[in-house]
Write a structure and sequence with these properties.
This protein is mostly helical. It contains three helices and two strands. It has one domain: Helix hairpin bin (Helix Hairpins, Orthogonal Bundle). Helix content is 71%, strand content 9%.
Length: 69
Amino acid sequence: MSEQRLARINELYHKAQKEGLTEEELREQARLRKEYIADFRKNLRGTLEQISFVNPDGSIVKASDLKKK
């Protein structure tokens, strides 16, 4: 997610706390939050799939290989 979108999310949050949002701004805030969550999940999933586990017998298994089984 770009810095501009994060800045806009924060801007809408602070405006909501101070004076409230219009209907259009509420829709924009909801859309931006959904995009942020989708990007966060995508990045987290990519990170988790790079993790490797060492079994007691010394073999190494990637998390993405475990998911396939």
